[in-house]
Design brief:
With about 270 residues, the protein is of the alpha/beta class. The protein contains 13 helices and 11 strands.
């Protein structure tokens, strides 16, 4: 049986959604070799077409060009799911971006949203998403652009929210926030792509129908995340758009890709 590499993140939403596919619970005409990496690392590796299937930030779609095509299943979109900008003291976004801002990667959707919301953004420093809260709290940087589970824990670090970029996007466009999608490499044949899309959808549906089945797999990759944060993470990022991106989801993706400049063109 053919093997396909599948790159996705170790975050609870991905391990929850793709557990059934990885473990052969849903039928597919191929075996999956999972590669779990930080989202920005997945974005970078897509430039070399490294994985047959991969999760990608919507912010990376333009730079990847024709190497991958979006599948309708497995996406991360929705309302109230956007990244946040946090600071040590309460301030506006305009004030927050006057200093150095830690970002989780220049191809992340979070960074693309920030550049749209704060055109005056200047000084940034890239670091892994899970280092940003500490960097802000310690004074290493003036503000941080946070994603994933950090939105549930920033207050524990004594930090303040300057802006919810998801709220900003929804108010500007009336569309869901398009964070990431599952993409198939362009050289895969149509039959394989259709089978992958179907298998991913069935894996997400299995996760909804059997929410406890992936518990051990999720915890294995959740580092020191509490059970409560894991559950909140899954509930926020795995939703109806994960089964099918939907027409409003496709419009949101197109709007974000077209609205924001590709890194390096400003």
């Amino acid at each position: 049986m053919r093997e396909l590499t599948f790159g996705f993140s170790p975050c609870p939403n991905d391990t929850f959604a793709f557990h059934a596919l990885v473990h052969g619970v849903v039928e597919a005409p191929f075996r999956i070799t999972p590669v779990l990496l930080d989202i920005e690392e997945l974005n970078r590796r897509a430039h070399n077409s490294e994985f047959a299937l991969t999760k990608l930030s919507v912010g990376a779609f333009a730079a990847v060009g024709e190497r991958y095509r979006l599948l309708r299943s497995g996406a991360a979109l929705g309302q109230g799911v956007g990244p946040l900008v946090v600071t040590r003291s309460a301030m506006t976004l305009a004030d927050a971006v006057r200093g150095t801002v830690a970002i989780p990667g220049r191809e992340t959707t979070a960074y693309r949203l920030l550049r749209l919301a704060a055109p005056t953004l200047d000084a940034t420093v890239e670091m892994r998403y899970d280092r940003i809260l500490h960097a802000v709290a310690s004074g290493e940087v003036d503000a941080g652009l946070i994603i994933h589970e950090s939105r549930f824990t920033y207050a524990d670090h004594g930090l303040h929210k300057a802006v919810d970029l998801g709220d900003w996007w929804e108010q500007e466009t009336g569309l869901p926030v398009p964070l990431a999608g599952i993409c198939a490499r362009a050289d895969l044949d149509e039959e394989t792509v259709a089978a992958a899309e179907r298998a991913i959808r069935e894996s997400v549906q299995y996760a909804f129908d059997h929410p406890d089945a992936s518990r051990e797999y999720v915890r294995q990759h959740a580092q020191e995340m509490s059970a409560e944060v894991c559950a909140a993470h899954i509930a926020l990022y795995v939703n109806a758009h994960s089964l099918d991106v939907g027409e409003d989801g496709l419009r949101a993706i197109a709007r974000l890709v077209d609205a924001a400049p590709v890194q390096g063109t400003l």
